[in-house]
Fold this sequence. Notes:
Number of helices: 5
Structural class: alpha/beta
Radius of gyration: 22 Å
Shape: elongated
Mean pLDDT: 79
Low-confidence stretches: 121-140, 145-159
CATH superfamily of the largest domain: FAD/NAD(P)-binding domain
Amino acid sequence: MRRLLVLGGGTAGTMIVNKLHRRLAREDWQITVVDRDDDHLYQPGYLFLPFGAYMPDQVVRKRHGFIPDGVDLILAEIDRVDAEDNTVLLADGRVLPYDYLVIAIGTAPRPDQTPGMLGGAVAQERVRLLLPRGVHGAGPRDELLRPRASRHPHHRDAHQVPGRTLEFAFLTEAWLRERGIRDRVELVYVTPPSGAFTRPIASQRLGDMLIDRKIPRNDGTFAEPLHGA
Length: 229
């Protein structure tokens, strides 16, 4: 039996084992997935939690429901990978040998490792509003509900997906407009490039959407399309 070991039971790990499980002969392969818990979090759904489009229980499912029959799911913390010995050591002392290893444990935002991200009131406000708070957090909704003028900067340095801050900006603008309080909040899109996105056509379309919704850049101008990107 050849042993395929997949570290991480998120979207990537789940897709890998489902695809390979259909292609690899069960009598020849043992497939194992390791993750620290049984909660599969649908991270794209986090974006909609602050606006009430999703509820917390709608972005959480049990991992074992996505793992096909015949694939072993081990719930444990991973200690380290011993590549020379082709083994993975778990925090509880177990040792898992493998012939093929897939590492799909994902990434996590670490603003503390970027100079300036946690220094000063403005930086702290950006991180507090924009970083994921987990599926139980209300996010910026409580802040937006306050009946006073607010300034909400949008930047993409704290995100794994570049387009996420644009989505957040548009959702916030629509949420405020639907409640008749759009004029109380100044939305600012903060981004290093001169355009709204890194591709010319998308930058043109998205830049126009920012202009239509009166969301300027942090320097007071509106995003221009990127030429030659």
